[in-house]
Design a protein that fits this description.
about 325 residues, about 15% strand, elongated
């Protein structure tokens, strides 16, 4: 009788909820883009009752730290991993191990190579982001575009996919034959002065700009991988009295970058939305944890497109854009 009573009591107790945990792995924890990404992921995780652990490399390009973070997430039994990979090829082995362990892996902002190495990718259309600033620069120069002297300030020598897509998008928008669209540096257009890498930060942008000005002091168009690099490029140009006669274009749309557009430091930037990317990623992990359904890409694309808008106060005919007032309403960081 006692056994039956105990069994009945136990069966009446609510089932113990299984805790869902997730990991966010970014390139750094200092770039405002990744700070906002963490904010979006943290807020959504709290809303949905998910335990979130965040990891980041010491600098952009710290691949080993990201591999170690994935290994920790596997050992912790995480249900999902959101990652912005520093090395989009080398990280695939670790990502594969996570997926084999039953973890949903979503690439944020930076597609893996191949893109199918992750279960899904939530990102800006980085090629489109580059294409918009390329179109704007060409339209702004008008007839002068055919004689442009262009500096390309890229991310890293490993050429992660985000850097390749933005670079090749810019060139396509400007009207340059990119040759192999899967890499930068093989183009033969004489308007390209050269490529240098910035690590996506201000110091790197300044050094890269100085290097390319040494190669050709007549540079009049500067493509930059992101707005911190653009700020550094501007300082290098200012040091030689060239800050007012060079077009600088960039990608990100953080609040400091949009303010730099308003102040004339940057001519135009393509704004992306990291908070949305990360929040959607956490929602996808929750859905996967609850019913095993994986997220689907945007129709006609290999990834889920989280949107992009060109921000400039000097609109160019035929290139859709928003002004800095609207850009500041939507910015981050």
């Amino acid at each position: 009788m006692l056994a039956g009573t105990l069994l009945g009591t136990l069966s009446a107790l609510p089932a113990m909820a299984t805790e869902t945990s997730a990991c966010l792995i970014t390139k750094t924890d200092t770039n405002p883009f990744f700070v906002k990404m963490k904010e979006g992921a943290s807020a959504k995780a709290e809303e949905l009752g998910i335990t979130l652990k965040s990891y980041a490399g010491r600098i952009d390009g710290d691949h080993d730290a990201q591999v170690a973070a994935i290994e920790t997430c596997i050992a912790d039994g995480a249900k999902g991993i959101l990652i912005t990979a520093s090395d989009t090829k080398a990280i695939v082995e670790a990502v594969t191990q996570a997926r084999d362990a039953g973890i949903l892996v979503i690439a944020l902002d930076t597609p893996l190579e191949p893109i199918t190495a992750a279960d899904a990718t939530f990102a800006t259309d980085n090629f489109k982001a580059g294409e918009l600033i390329g179109q704007w620069a060409a339209a702004t120069l008008g007839e002068g575009a055919k004689d442009a002297r262009i500096a390309m300030l890229d991310l890293a020598v490993s050429q992660p996919s985000v850097g390749v897509l933005r670079d090749q998008g810019f060139m396509t928008g400007f009207g340059i034959d990119v040759k192999d669209p899967a890499k930068w540096g093989d183009e033969e257009d004489e308007r390209i002065v050269g490529h240098d890498v910035t690590a996506g930060n201000e110091e790197g942008g300044r050094t890269a700009m100085e290097n390319l000005l040494t190669k050709d002091p007549t540079i009049n168009v500067v493509y930059t991988i992101n707005e911190p690099a653009a700020a550094g490029a501007y300082e290098a140009l200012k040091a030689v009295g060239r800050e007012n006669d060079v077009l600088i274009v960039s990608v990100d749309g953080g609040c400091p970058g949009v303010r730099n557009v308003a102040e004339g430091v940057i001519g135009a930037t393509s704004q992306q939305y990291p908070l949305l990317m990360a929040a959607l990623g956490i929602e996808a992990i929750k859905t996967y944890a609850d019913n095993g359904v994986k997220p689907a890409p945007t129709e006609g694309k290999a990834f889920f497109d989280t949107g992009v808008a060109l921000v400039t106060d000097k609109p160019a005919e035929g290139v859709p854009s928003i002004d800095t007032k609207e850009g500041l309403d939507k910015c981050w960081g």
